[in-house]
Design a protein that fits this description.
about 15% strand, NADH Oxidase, Nitroreductase/BluB, oxidoreductase activity, acting on paired donors, with incorporation or reduction of molecular oxygen, alpha+beta
C-alpha cells in the first residue's frame, strides 16, 4: 500500500554475505537442462511447493502475476504428451542438414515419461485487464514476466537437487488441447522435474559437440549496437 509506514514497507538492502553470494552463483553456473537422466524417486509435495513458490515470487510487470502452473503426474497423460513430442521431434530432425541429423537424433529426450513430475507454466494474457501498468507500450511484457518465473524455478530446483528439462519441441496447439488450456492463455514452458544422481559439468549440448558457449566479451556493446563477431 502506498500509505504504509517505512517500517512496514521497507527492509534492509544490505548485500549478501560471501557464502550467500557463492550459493547463488553456484546455482546459476551449475544449472543444467536435464534430458533423460531422471531417477524414479518421487518429488515430495513440500519440495514441489517450494519450487512453485519461488516461481510465484518472480518479478512481473504491473505486479500482474500472469502465470499458472499445471502439475502433471498421470502416466497416461504424460504418455500422450510424449507422443506429441515424438511427432514434433521427427519434424525437427528433418529440418537440420543431413550431417547434423544423426547427432540430433542421438540426443536423448525422454524426460516427459521418465520424470515423475511434468509442469506446464502458462501466461494468462487477460490477467490485470486491458490496461496494465508497464505493459501499455509493450504487450509482450506479460510473457517476459512469466519467463522470469520459469528462471526462478530453475534456480530453486538446482538448489534443491532437482533436475529440470525444458521441452520446447511440441506444437503449442496440440499441447493446449491436451491440457484443456483456453485460447487466451499462452504456454510459456513445459518442464520435466525429478531427482538426478549426477549432472553435466558443462551444458550437454556443449559436451556432445552441438554448440559452444559464446565469449561474453563478444556480446557486450558500449553505448549503441555494434556488428557482432560471427559465431564460430
Amino acid at each position: 500500500m502506498l500509505n504504509q509506514s517505512n517500517s512496514e514497507a521497507f527492509g534492509e538492502a544490505e548485500a549478501f554475505s560471501a557464502e550467500e553470494r557463492a550459493a547463488l552463483y553456484k546455482a546459476i553456473y551449475t544449472r543444467r537442462d536435464v534430458r533423460d537422466e531422471f531417477l524414479p524417486r518421487p518429488v515430495p509435495d513440500d519440495v514441489l511447493k517450494r519450487l512453485l513458490d519461488a516461481a510465484h515470487h518472480a518479478p512481473s510487470v504491473g505486479f500482474m502475476q500472469p502465470w499458472n502452473f499445471i502439475v502433471i503426474r498421470d502416466e497416461s497423460r504424460r504418455a500422450h504428451i510424449h507422443s506429441l513430442f515424438t511427432k514434433a521431434n521427427e519434424e525437427a530432425a528433418a529440418m537440420f542438414a543431413p550431417d547434423r541429423q544423426a547427432l540430433y537424433r542421438s540426443l536423448k529426450l525422454e524426460g516427459i515419461r521418465k520424470a515423475p513430475v511434468n509442469l506446464c507454466i502458462t501466461c494468462d494474457r487477460t490477467r490485470g485487464g486491458k490496461v496494465v501498468l508497464g505493459r501499455t507500450h509493450n504487450p509482450q511484457m506479460d510473457l517476459y514476466s512469466t519467463v522470469c518465473a520459469v528462471q526462478n524455478l530453475l534456480l530453486a530446483a538446482r538448489a534443491e537437487g532437482i533436475g529440470v528439462g525444458w521441452v520446447s519441441i511440441v506444437h503449442d496447439d496440440a499441447l493446449q488441447q491436451a491440457l484443456s488450456i483456453p485460447s487466451h492463455v499462452a504456454i510459456v514452458a513445459y518442464l520435466c522435474l525429478g531427482y538426478i544422481d549426477q549432472h553435466y559439468l558443462k551444458p550437454e549440448l556443449e559436451v556432445k559437440g552441438w554448440r559452444s558457449r559464446l565469449p561474453l566479451d563478444d556480446l557486450i556493446f558500449e553505448e549503441q549496437w555494434q556488428e557482432p563477431r560471427e559465431p564460430k
